Amino acid sequence: MNKARPPAWAERFLRWYCNPFFLEEIEGDIYELFDRRARDQSVRRARLKFIWDVIRFFRWSNIKRSNSKNAIMPKSSLFRNYLKLGIRNLRKYPVTSAINILGLATALGMAITVYIFIDFQLHMNRFHTKGDRIHQVINYVQNESNNPLWSDTPFELGPRLLQDHPAVEQFTRVEYTSASVRYRDNVFEESMVFVDAAFMKMFDFAVLAGSPSALANKNQVIISYDMAKKYFGEEDPMAKEVIMSFGNGDTRTFEVGAVLEDYPYNSGMSFDFLLPMGNFIDQSPPNRNGWAYFTDATFVLLHDGHTIDELYSVYDAYVEEQQAVGPEWLVERFTTIPLYDLSTKGYEMSSPVVLAVEPGGRIALALIALFLLGMACFNFMNIAVVGAARRLREIALRKVMGGVRKEIIQQFMVENLLLCTIALLLGILISRYLLIPGFDVMVPELDFEFRTFFPFDLALFCIGLLCATAFLSGAYPALYISRFQPVTIFKGSQKLGSKNTFARVILGFQFFLAFQTIVAGVVFTDITYEMTKRDWGYEQHNTLSIYVQNSANYELMRNAVMDQPHLESFAGASAHVGTFLPREFFEYLDHEFALRRAGVTSGYLEMMGFQLVEGRFLTDQAMDRKSSVVVNEAFVRTMGWDESINQTFVMDSISRTVVGVVKNFHYDNFYARIEPFVFTGVEDKDICFMVVRSQDGLTSLDQHLRNTWFDIAPNEPYDRNYQEDTFNYYFRSTRADMVLMLIVTAMALFLACLGLYGLISMSIQGKLKEFGVRKVLGATPQGITRIAGKQYVWIVGIAFLLGAPLGAYLIIMMVDELYPVHKPITAGPFLLSISVILLTMIITVVGQVRRAVKVNPASILRSE
Amino acid sequence: MRGIHLGELEELVLLTVGSLYDEAYGVAIIDELKEQTGRELNISAAHAVLRRLQEKQLLESRMGGATNERGGRRKRLFTLTKLGKEALDDSMLIRNKLYKRIPKLTFNFST
Residue A663 in contact with residue A632, Cβ under 8 Å? Predict the structure, then answer.
């Protein structure tokens, strides 16, 4: 009779998973049960129950192979021992460990930050769920600019694509404009966009209140969260009316139809006001041809399953049609760029509406981060070798007790992993709380956060980073130390550290970089600081200017301010120093040059405190108002005059006579070269600025003027500027530059010193015996210090000779580029940077050298 | 070791091993348990409990001789250790002690 058999696959499965140690008894028991069930019940049931039993035996205690009863020293407790020793070592040498970990953490923090930054750029705009179907249509244009690829496309393009091509589902155009926006007493000049109604359907901008379809109604506006706060504060903005006065004189009332949520951190667009496109069409001249007018951007949404290449079939016809209209700009050909690629590839086109970043910055940052990390790993490695040298006896003992080399390597790798983990956690903190907020302050236009688009990516990156650094920094010490023979260690004749040329070259290179950055940093800071305290060329305090727009307003404002007790003096102007002044081109004899000019009333120049070099200021006489001019020194130099007073030249077909020359002054920030400047008289109808001066009542005057302004022009913003605040944005940006420079410098110095520390302590550790013998033979402490430090002085010296001039050269080039006029570079910064480096070096080295000096010959030489 | 904690199932299995003496292996133990208490136990659960008891050193085991049954597989035979016997005694003692402290009254109510 054929004996019933249990299912073969279940048997195989059992044999596969089961610990061989238990297999026999388990098999025996379930075979016995199977036989009995096959006999008493049925074969089928028995087989089913057999499978069930096999599954029930599938538990960890039967699977795991290591049987704790049989192993002498289980792996897990060995690891516990490694960890415990690692932690004890950390505690025993807290300073060394802290320095070492901090060095690595700094580099890791930098790497993480750079990773986040790159991830941020690569995943921009990814939150638009239809983004894979949205494309921006762009075009090559024949015009006078260098770059023929433009974001601006013919106004007619979007509607025509929708009409002519079945693949296009929707389109939207983006047309920039600006208007002064008023809600009650809040009036500000704002930049905004007209968009087609499909805009909110194509892009996933979340709506906080109201409906995204608000754009379908021509009288409604969608505002951003920031604007809701700015204009309405705590009030509910919904259905409130705002009045907008556009640049072309059109004034319209809009109702707030929706408020957007704060833009996502990776949004490449962040418009403050979205207006229905219909309003723009109303404002345009009726006979304007849609192919001739270029709007700022055109986006199309394709139907599912269509590719953008299909659109190329209609482009040729469009190009012909566009060129036939004969506009100023001729389209050569159309092309497209997917929404998701705009942030990385959009920099190729002129005037993009979606934030685009050049790849150069990404690559440079990644390289810097990699480089820093490499340096940090190298330093870490050196210091790890020194640290291990203190524990040679422990290693020897482990070997004697039967530890094989593999286990020693394992031990060092585990300890290293522990250190690297701590460094990584610290690095994450540095990145999260120091670097990223720092970046955010320095580049406020990017909404930079500690996150990646897929959170998992960041975790994966950190783990990868941990493995890489742990391996890079730990492999060499582990392999090196584990090779030693116990006998030589116990005998005390194990030598540590050889003439490691590679290590010295690396160290030299680090100092080379450190010197370079430090010299550059100090020179830059020195010059920049000097700049901020520079004389502006006129008296910037106690003055205030208001953009009054026209002479009628000027008249009214002047009348209102005349009787104010605090008013010291006032003046009007057609253009005001400190506000934006366009460059004009002026032809004199046979050459052309750029100049700026301002028409001013009499008293303006005196009030602003311009310094006369020769001649006189403008007076109120008719001749002065019409044809006299006051120029700056740059003008005289450009004209090549020796004698400037009473020289004449023709400007705007009026013969002008120079009556005075003022010292050069900064009408623009200090980055800009000072170019020729001409002050002319001004006709009353051209006045659009009012300038007032008051020694002690400027703020109350300001308040009075503000109130007056709201009576005169309630729909226009009160656009005033304290003269001394003119360059504030510029000072802020220079301060940010200085901070960045300082951080880079500090990091370079810190890493270089770490490298020095590692190498010098390793070499001293290796030479302790030599120092002992020298002491016995009568060496002085000075002599020993000299010997201990000699080779490093060379390295640092060479690094300085190479690095400092190069750093200075580079930074002088940069400074020359940035500031046309700056103070001469003196030896001061160089001396300062040398002393900074020397000081940090001495602090780094002194403890180690003391060890060499204080060495007790008796204890060192005893073991021989 | 005083204060060894025995689970209910562990105690039952331990008692069964004691009662089967020298013939205590997986299948025999679940058979006996079913017979005596009516409780059905999966063989894998029995193995787990036996191994646990062995780790607590309440049981010791050896492999029996090979037979033609069970596909030629040997049995692992369990016997009580001294510690195991003490643990059983202890738990019995505690039970008895506690049992005796139940007032007679309780029985009246329960009937």
Answer: yes
